[in-house]
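Lab meeting minutes (informal)
Scribe: AK
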Amino acid sequence: MNRGAEIIKLIEENPGIKFREIMRETQMKNGVLSYHVKRLEESGSVKIERKSGQTRFYPLCHRGRINLNKKSETGNPTKNNAYIAQ
């Protein structure tokens, strides 16, 4: 599996995942991960939300449904009632 596909799979499985968590899970260095997520964002594969010192990642080609507005107890989006382009 190439690195881009690995990152997308991780984001699909963990919508709202933080940059540092992706680094930890993929064991990629900061610069390498930055390069790949920039390319994924430019291609429209992921949505990157940057606010209050945190960067969170959401899939745009997710096969399921994610509600980007409704938050769970952990503050991450829930997997219900959103409309994601496929």
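Next up, CB showed the second protein from the same session:
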Amino acid sequence: MAKHYFFDRLQSLNLSNNKIHHLPTSIGDLPNLIGLDLCVNELEALPESIGRLEKLRLLDLRQNKLTDLPETLANVKDLIVLDCSKNLIEKLPRELRHLKSLQVGKFQPI
């Protein structure tokens, strides 16, 4: 299958306010993604493949219906901003404590 040059170069993706219920596993196939805005959707879970976004610095998950975060998110070592406020998350994965670059983390539930 031919690689899509555009997606290989994609650095920022804003999918906010789209009533998205789930993300495809292929979200992890964006090697240069730095910013991912998924706020104000209907997401109940994130695919494990999100942990393959090694260059990701900003992940905005505000106002969804997430009940947890995948442990693989701890693989995103350079993540600086993680906002998962206004979700249904009661407990964060212990693995997230390994995110040494994290400077802003917002976790308050609804």
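CB comment: The mean pLDDT is 91.
No objections, moving on.
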